[in-house]
Specification:
- By secondary structure, the protein is mainly alpha-helical.
- It is built from 17 helices and eight strands.
- The chain has one domain (27-398, 408-418).
Length: 433
């Protein structure tokens, strides 16, 4: 009887999932909303274990790519992303890349990129900007509450034990609790909010609503006490008011004024916090500087192996095995110079195409401003997934005008139809950095 009930429950769940999929396939805006909520509000340890763990964010990304990717038009930048996938698959077959790195590369870098490309083609930039901006402001409010109360309710959400043990703890700095929201790390939260600032300025909200949203996000970033998060937030805001065409004159001046006042008030406070943090903050910076010694182990193609047992100069490389908080070096160690170059050709190409076409979008601004952050953190938790989704949006917005516009119709030309599917994986980083 129990087996029969379990079978009925399983069939009911499958039927419900099938009906939901049929509905969502015709509702790209709702699909985007669900995905954004998953990224911003579900910790990375929430998901299902099918012999290997798939986070809710990964599952939703995979599902929406399958549902909406049936008629996706390839462009030149996509060839480099597919080249990256092809090369690491071959390297895995040749035992030059670990299975975990193959899976994480496809699921956390490639799949979110194509989801960004696909959803832009379906609905354009305005809903994307609106949902990211709204979610970021809500997360910012929760981060402020987290800092003021010293409590993060996200860490109480149950999930996959090993991941929760890694990411589900809180970080102090100089006696303060560093806000991290659902992102599992203060740096990940700071980076996600910094990118979102460009989308807040790009929305069609009134000047005062945008200003309030930026203040909330800015305060939340400060409460992460992440230096790179604060730096990239400032860069994002400055670039947005300088180059985004859709930003009105009034909000440019209001934003510039708020930024100046905020820096005047907060710089002395932050200076005190980082001085009080003493060796913890200084050691974190020294650690990142010492990562460059790992470059001697990078291969032209294929993952570095055996470096964990080496000593270079006076540095024992095994001390970096738990964490390599530098996205570039982490990818170089996993895949080698050529696959990493193919991957970042897409990243840089999105910016170059946008500059040459004179179509700087909030996504383009966000990824430009994040470049310094890639030297301070790997693609951890939802931060990396959100970043590569935004890279995909940036590529789409640079390649052609807003879908549905007269300019877009004139620029339209046939391209190959493909379907993209993939799997799952997770990055790691030291909790204390």
């Amino acid at each position: 009887m129990t087996d029969g009930l379990m079978m009925m429950a399983a069939l009911t769940a499958l039927l419900a999932a099938g009906i939901a999929a049929m509905f969502l396939a015709r509702a790209p805006r709702l699909s985007l909303a669900i995905w954004v909520v998953a990224v911003f509000f579900l910790p990375i340890w929430v998901g299902v274990n099918l012999g290997f763990f798939l986070s809710a964010v990964t599952l939703s990304t995979l599902g929406f790519v399958v549902l909406h990717g049936g008629r996706f038009r390839l462009a030149a930048p996509d060839a480099f992303m597919l080249l990256f996938v092809g090369v690491i698959v071959l390297l895995f077959a040749a035992k030059q890349v670990d299975l975990s790195y193959l899976v994480s590369g496809v699921l956390e870098l490639v799949l979110p990129y194509f989801w960004g490309r696909i959803i832009y083609e379906r609905i354009g930039s305005r809903p994307i900007a609106g949902w990211i901006a709204g979610a970021a402001v809500a997360v910012g409010v929760l981060a402020v509450i987290e800092f003021l109360t010293g409590s993060n309710f996200f860490i109480g959400i149950p999930g996959y034990g090993p991941l929760q043990a890694t990411w589900g703890t809180l970080q102090p700095r100089a006696g303060f609790l560093r806000a991290e929201g659902a992102f599992g790390h203060s740096i990940a939260l700071g980076g996600a909010l910094a990118m979102s600032a460009a989308f807040v300025l790009a929305t069609r909200m009134s000047t005062w609503v945008k200003a309030v949203g930026l203040v909330v996000i800015g305060v939340a970033v400060v409460f992460t006490f992440s230096r790179i998060g604060i730096i990239t937030f400032v860069l994002t805001v400055v670039l947005s008011i300088l180059v985004l065409r859709g930003v009105g004159t009034s909000i440019r001046w209001v934003t510039a004024g708020l930024l100046a006042v905020g820096l005047f008030i907060l710089v002395p406070f932050l200076d005190t916090v980082f001085l009080d943090a003493g060796s913890e903050a200084g050691g974190s910076a020294d650690y990142r500087g010492s990562l460059t010694v790992l470059l001697s182990q990078v291969q032209l193609i294929g993952g570095a192996s055996g470096w964990e047992d080496l000593v270079v100069g006076d540095t024992y490389l095994g001390s970096f095995t738990a964490s390599t908080d530098n996205a570039f070096i982490s990818l170089l160690l996993r895949y080698g110079y050529l696959p990493t170059a193919a991957l970042f050709t897409v990243y840089v190409g999105a910016v170059v195409v946008a500059l040459r076409a004179g179509r700087m979008s909030p996504a383009s601004v966000a990824i430009i401003a994040q470049l310094p952050g890639l030297f301070a953190v790997a693609f951890i938790t939802q931060y990396g997934i959100l970043l590569w989704f935004i890279v995909g949006v940036a590529v789409s917005s640079a390649l052609r005008p807003e879908p549905g516009s007269t300019m877009a119709a004139a620029a339209e030309h046939p391209r190959t139809d493909v379907m993209i599917i993939g799997g799952a994986g997770h990055g790691t980083s030291s909790r204390g950095r």
